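Weekly puzzle thread! Below is a chain. First person to post its structure in token form gets bragging rights.
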Amino acid sequence: MPPEAYQPGERRPIATRDRKVSQWAASLLARWGVSANAISVAGLFCGVAAGAALAITPYAHGWERAAWLAGAVLIQLRLLANMLDGMVAIASARASAVGELFNEVPDRISDAATLIGLGYAVGGNVALGFTAACVALFTAYVRAMGKVAGAGQEFCGPMAKPQRMFVATVAALYCGLAPADWQPRWELSPSYVGLPAAALLLIIVGGVATAVRRLGRIARTLTKGPS
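Winning reply:
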């Protein structure tokens, strides 16, 4: 008797996954034989490259705006890869337990790289960048522990991965496109902070709220049992 096909676990709700263009792209990649794990690794490279692009903005004299815009585009490419890897795995009937690792581990590295890079960016704050990365890792840890405990995965926000990356993307786009006179600036001896630091602070506060909310929902599920 042949073994049953691997059934992927719970997937993050993503509205764009149901769009025809997304389904078409996933089907095309599956027909071309592109591996879902390769897409996950490509997403990892985009996430790390996004962090690098943001981090070099203080040194990219004359190319600062290009670095900001590259960071924003790379963040979105990483999210696109995060959506397509699972879709391709299912479309090609090659979902596997190993694929779950390729889906999760690169995400944690990408989150940390992007947020730390934003901390090193012009108007950022290194401490806030590392703190935001730790908070992002903790929210993912809470979600994973909910699954381990038997409550399932909690993807709720208000600052889950899509929201974190949305905030980072908006900050990068604004810094790359807005005139210098429109850039917010707050003096903080011996330097100053700007929109990137504010974005990181928002991600930290929202991330803590997300972790607390997820813990509460997981605890209620474990207490009452799954509905």
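Puzzle host: Confirmed. Bonus trivia for everyone else. The chain has one domain: 15-180+187-224.
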